[in-house]
């Protein structure tokens, strides 16, 4: 839809779907999914070179013309996250970072205290911080106040595919901040992405839902259309919910039969 | 001299620099980043940064991530 661009950190995007590369089965599948999704912003990670992908993953993404968004996945403290962000800035030549500070092994839920600390430090160092957070509207506001370029609440735990477990909180968070809100984590299928947009999110970030789908390319297209559909529905304004029916066909002029 | 590279003990020649280590550990990789004792060593400084015995070095490269 023209004239409805997304702006994060001063950069403008036509697509409102951010794609993560985690879990991608092959470079061919990644390339096809990136293309089908229409995404312009793709997350990547840094790992020890022995465990890393060969150079070709980045080449695929470069060829697709997408912007790279390094993450701090796996970091547990502000100190680790800040150091990882600095390394990512060096490796990828971008000061954009998806800030992720995990506080629990089982749920991979964010550690709010370390997250806010890291966000403040990185903003002070000139990073454009997109913060992965819980769906807590108060924490979201604190992150926005700290200078994050986007606040990215989870719908449910990373990779769970459980969708948006607390839509009300996501809607409240959207109301609470001025910066873009990106629903990040928990998306399982297209209707989850559409719901995120209907709730007022400005974009959706997902990885596993596409990369671990039976057909990643087709699911990427599904997500693209779901995000577009949800966005259109949000802008169009849904009808109010009613307890009882309201006839759409007029009773006036009903024949006596 | 002995140092730790990516969590494992490693032997490098005396006088070796970060650039030497990257060439040995990450051939064929671009977008490499190096931390020496926790601090980033900018690419522009690799050739001028000598390694010291006991250093803990991390040599990192891109991978898929969500």
TrEMBL record, chain A:
It comes from Geodermatophilus obscurus. 1-deoxy-D-xylulose 5-phosphate binds at residues 159, 185-186, 207-208. InterPro entries: Aldolase_TIM, Thiazole_synthase_ThiG, ThiG. GO terms for biological process: thiamine diphosphate biosynthetic process. GO terms for molecular function: thiazole synthase activity. Signal peptide: none annotated. Pathway: Cofactor biosynthesis; thiamine diphosphate biosynthesis. One of its GO terms (cellular component) is cytoplasm. This is Thiazole synthase. Residues 7-250 form the Thiazole synthase ThiG domain. It is found in: Cytoplasm. The active site is at 98 (schiff-base intermediate with dxp). Pfam families: ThiG.
From TrEMBL, chain B:
It comes from the Bacteria. It holds the Pfam family ThiS. Transmembrane segments: none annotated. InterPro entries: Beta-grasp_dom_sf, Mopterin_synth/thiamin_S_b, Thi_S, ThiS/MoaD-like. PANTHER family: SULFUR CARRIER PROTEIN THIS. This is Sulfur carrier protein. It comes from Geodermatophilus obscurus.
């Amino acid at each position: 839809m023209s004239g409805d661009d997304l702006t994060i950190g001063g950069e403008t995007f036509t697509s409102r779907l951010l794609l993560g590369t985690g879990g991608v089965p092959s470079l061919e599948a990644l390339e096809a999914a990136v293309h089908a999704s229409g995404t312009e912003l793709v997350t990547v990670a840094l790992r020890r070179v022995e465990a890393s992908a060969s150079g070709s993953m980045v080449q695929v993404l470069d060829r697709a013309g997408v912007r790279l968004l390094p993450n701090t996945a796996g970091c547990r403290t502000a100190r680790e996250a800040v150091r990882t962000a600095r390394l990512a800035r060096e490796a990828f030549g971008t000061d954009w970072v998806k800030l992720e500070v995990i506080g629990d092994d089982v749920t991979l839920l964010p550690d709010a205290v370390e997250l806010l600390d890291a966000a403040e430090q990185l903003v002070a160092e000139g990073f454009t911080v997109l913060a992965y957070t819980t769906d807590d509207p108060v924490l979201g506001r604190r992150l926005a106040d700290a200078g994050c370029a986007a606040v990215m609440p989870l719908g449910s735990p990373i990779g769970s595919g459980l969708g948006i477990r607390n839509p009300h909180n996501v809607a409240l968070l959207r109301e609470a901040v001025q910066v873009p809100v990106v629903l990040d984590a928990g998306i399982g299928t297209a209707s989850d992405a559409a719901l995120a947009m209907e709730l007022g999110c400005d974009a959706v970030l997902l990885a596993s839902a596409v990369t671990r789908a039976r057909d990643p390319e087709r699911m990427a297209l599904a997500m693209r259309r779901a995000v577009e559909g949800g966005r259109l529905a949000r802008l169009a304004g849904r009808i109010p919910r009613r307890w009882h029916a309201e006839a759409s066909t007029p009773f006036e002029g009903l024949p006596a039969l | 001299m002995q140092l730790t590279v990516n969590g494992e003990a490693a032997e490098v020649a005396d006088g070796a620099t970060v650039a030497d280590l990257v060439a040995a550990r990450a051939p064929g990789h671009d977008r490499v980043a190096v931390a020496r004792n926790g601090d980033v060593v900018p690419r522009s400084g690799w050739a001028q940064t000598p390694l010291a015995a006991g250093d803990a070095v991390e040599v990192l490269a891109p991978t898929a991530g969500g």
